[in-house]
Design a protein that fits this description.
Pathway: Carbohydrate acid metabolism. The chain contains ten helices and eight strands. An eight-stranded parallel β-sheet has the order 7-6-5-4-3-2-1-8, with helices on both faces.
């Protein structure tokens, strides 16, 4: 059920890489309290499907919930069964993209160069995740809009409070925010109040952008 309107309205996807399932659930609660309702639970988080299942049961349609760092067809199927509504892969492979598409969920696969973007489109991705976006910055994203004016682009890696408005001005449909929003240090130390504070900052800037 591809729904790019929901993604566009969500604005920010928090990339949650937590040291444990419990930490991921607590981080998600802090993010939601801070106004960030787009949650990408990565498969580098232990028991990621269980986390997705718990968050789906707890928050339902009030959040935009998906799985990230999807690298196998099995993970795509697990995430779908757990209640994910979108799937994100760091790169683009034809076999993986087909498996992700087979779930019927919104598919976001990673690319950087124009050739990779074209391949992602050929394989049927719904959103191209420009990763790592820090290598080119907002100017690079804007340049990609020239040959791909209708393409849904989501930069991830390098999105900060200082440049989030530039990403949207460059044409991003949404942004993925990892360490600058949900830092490993904050999660390891249990600083969920800091996660909530950063979420308020990101969400406020995203709405204003």
């Amino acid at each position: 059920m591809t729904d790019l309107t929901t993604l566009s309205n969500t604005r920010v996807l928090a990339v949650v890489r937590a040291p444990s399932a419990d930490s991921a659930i607590l981080a998600a609660g802090a993010l939601i309290a801070g106004g960030v309702t787009g949650l990408e639970i990565t498969y580098s988080t232990p028991d990621a499907p269980a986390v997705i299942r718990e968050l789906a049961a707890r928050y339902g349609e009030s959040i935009y919930l998906g799985a990230g760092t999807v690298t196998t067809a099995e993970q795509a199927e697990q995430a779908h069964a757990a209640g994910a509504t979108f799937l994100v892969s760091p790169g683009t492979r034809p076999d993986l993209t087909r498996a992700m598409k087979a779930t019927g969920l919104t598919v976001m696969t990673g690319a950087l160069t124009p050739s990779e973007v074209m391949a992602a489109l050929d394989y049927g991705t719904d959103v191209v995740k420009i990763f790592p976006a820090s290598l080119g910055g907002p100017a690079f994203l804007k340049a990609l809009r020239g040959p791909f004016p209708e393409l849904a682009l989501m930069p991830t890696g390098g999105v900060t409070p200082e440049n989030i408005d530039e990403w949207f001005a460059a044409g991003a449909i949404a942004v993925g925010a990892g360490g600058d929003l949900v830092s490993g240090a904050d999660l390891a130390a249990g600083r969920y109040d800091e996660v909530e504070r950063k979420a308020r900052l990101f969400s406020g800037l995203a709405v204003a952008a």
